[in-house]
Amino acid sequence: MVIRHDHWIDGRATPPDGQAWLATLDPSTRRPGDEIAAGGPADVSKAVAAADRAARAWAGRSPADRGAVLHRIADVVEADAQALMEAERSCTGKVPAQLRLEVEMSAAYFRYYAEVVRAAGQGQVIEQGSGVHTYTRHEPYGVVGVITPWNLPLNQAVRTLAPALAMGNSVVVKPSEYTSVPTLRLAWLASQAGTPDGVLNVVTGTGPQAGEALAADPRVGRLAFTGSVATGRYLSGVTGGGLTPITLELGGRSSLIVFAGADLDRAVAAAVTALAENSGQVCSATARLLVEERVHDEVVDRVVAAAEKLQPATDFGPLITQEQYQKVLGFFADAPVPPATGGGPFQRGPAARGLYVRPTVYARVPHDARIAREGVFGPVLVTSSFSDEAEALAMANDTEYGLTAAVWSGDLAQGLRIAERIEAGQVSVNGGPLTIETPFGGYKHRGHGREKGLAALYEYAQLKTVSASLR
Ligand code: NAD
């Protein structure tokens, strides 16, 4: 049975002003999924007005008090894990391990920001001599607009709204039109957990109809956008006439560099994860595999052998939409070399009914090939070989994007030298973990601003200085 989902505005389900709903799809079967409200400017305006009304009282509560609400949201997210996983599965087809990870991380984001806001996010006293009292305060923006993509729907929403709420902002989220239901359920859960009406609102709909109205609303004090480079670039001009501050987390192509002396078992496992995790639909996937010449073929053979063991619907899910599926197959059609494995869809069996693409490796791809340079967002690894450290670094940096990078080396000093010189916002050396605590964001055309960690708290606050003469 197809269920219709309304917006979540001011603490209640709210039908769309235009009385229209959009169809969604279960990409694991290509069958129709639930319908979501087709929001437009009137719905966005209603949600922003509710957020605006709620903002002052929410900001006036102590960090400890707001943190307590965030902990209760984490409690209900954990208790509701099965339903949240199903909400996300039905619009993404993700495999259970991936769904569980995303729900657990979502709860963990709320707990992290519930605590850190009590210790960080505070101002300082500036000494200017006797007779003067000067201090700074981190004050919320009021209403924060959040626009999210489809690849990690719950996580990308929570990653942004948890620090924004912790800092005392109210929020309006416009999730991807393909994956809105998990975010709607989250807002309903947050309400059950005692989040005041209007503090967390969700308006669904397409980017041009609902997203753009949110970005352009002058009552939105800050916008956080996660999505494609093209939309990010466009939105920078839309936000309050280009003057509203905006966090941009955009698309890209990141490298995984393997030196001959590295622990190859672990490096190969990392490459297979980059290939298969969420079917490669991960913005930080290190899907350009650069391997030192003398171990290149051995590493590729091992990655290919592992990729061929991966099972659809068990180890990896489908691509999200027919459009994305065609886009990835288009990259294959354009590839300058034949695939070492994969390179096409499934022709028969249950996977052929869904939007599944075979885990694919293209070896020794010329550096300037489209598939090596652009974000494919599919289960695809592209390899090249290098002869020394300088060449590896030059290849990794020869991109207009710079979100993440991974380096595997038997020589830690070499790994850290690369980390120092690579143009990326996050670098993992020999599998160093990148977690909720570690700030995340890009260099170059990968956007600006930081998510995760303490850094994200300060994205959602503006610094005020107060100076008083005591004379
Ligand atoms: P997209 O830019 O098409 O859409 C992202 C969001 O923006 C959606 O909610 C969409 O409805 C909205 N949108 C689209 N056009 C809009 C407009 N004119 N005005 C306002 N909103 C608009 O991207 P996508 O295809 O949904 O997502 C995939 C992209 O996201 C990939 O390129 C990927 O690299 C990137 N991504 C980045 C990160 C990160 O953290 N850096 C994380 C995940 C995905």
Describe the structure in brief.
This protein is of the alpha/beta class and about 475 residues long. The chain has helices at about 40-60, 65-80, 80-90, 95-120, 155-165, 180-190, 205-215, 230-240, 265-275, 295-310, 320-335, 350-355, 370-375, 390-395, 410-420, 455-460; strands at about 5, 5-10, 10-15, 20-25, 30-35, 125, 130-140, 145, 170-175, 200, 220-225, 245-250, 255-260, 290, 360, 380-385, 400, 405-410, 425-430, 445, 445-450, 460-470. The model has no long low-confidence stretch (mean pLDDT about 95).
Describe this structure in words.
The chain has 471 residues and is an alpha/beta fold. The protein has 2 domains: 267 residues, Aldehyde Dehydrogenase, Chain A, domain 1, CATH 3.40.605.10; 182 residues, 3-Layer(aba) Sandwich (Aldehyde Dehydrogenase, Chain A, domain 2), CATH 3.40.309.10. The chain has 16 helices and 22 strands. It has a 6-stranded mixed β-sheet, with helices on both faces. A 6-stranded parallel β-sheet has the order 15-16-14-13-18-19, sandwiched between helices. Strand 9, helix 6 and strand 10 form a beta-alpha-beta unit. The longest helix is centred in the N-terminal third of the chain and has 24 residues. Bound molecules: nicotinamide-adenine-dinucleotide (NAD).
